[in-house]
Amino acid sequence: NAGVTQTPKFQVLKTGQSMTLQCAQDMNHEYMSWYRQDPGMGLRLIHYSVGAGITDQGEVPNGYNVSRSTTEDFPLRLLSAAPSQTSVYFCASRPHFQRTQDTQYFGPGTRLTVL
Amino acid sequence: GEDVEQSLFLSVREGDSSVINCTYTDSSSTYLYWYKQEPGAGLQLLTYIFSNMDMKQDQRLTVLLNKKDKHLSLRIADTQTGDSAIYFCAETQRGGSQGNLIFGKGTKLSVKP
To answer: Which residues of chain A have a pLDDT value below 70?
Structure first.
């Protein structure tokens, strides 16, 4: 198993540009989520999905869209990038939403800079 | 809302014990977690404790839970330079979103040789 993969590893955008951060897992996990990590702020939940076709907002969803058309993929879209979205983005997955005792696996992260 | 608090930095000497502390807000959290993040990497689950336990030991790691004070600690015995990392405490979110994890800001552990 490759686990949770994220592409790209690094990205620089100009203000107003759009882009999609890719996340995929090959473990047949139902639950997937996106976090952003900022210095001194820890990890904050952006969006999550409990299964294909089902998504919901986390703590900081503004400026981001998600979709979950397959179990494997959970892309995060920035519609119009802003400097405040400069961050490191992590995707995570776990077998089931309710079974919180299961290990939650994290991808290696995407470091995004918005100029 | 939920809040998980941790001190931001801890520095210890190699061979000493490290104790990382955390306070959380949701007394209904079923599980509480410790994650480790090495430089440039994602988070890895280190250990977790069920809320009806007071202590859990796993090799060099000891987790203590004080439910009355909503206090969680992680003790690393015989700390090594390879333990240098950021350690995150996490609890489950309240209400209908209990499958989501809420993370603290992380404690950066520096181990001096």
So the answer is: none
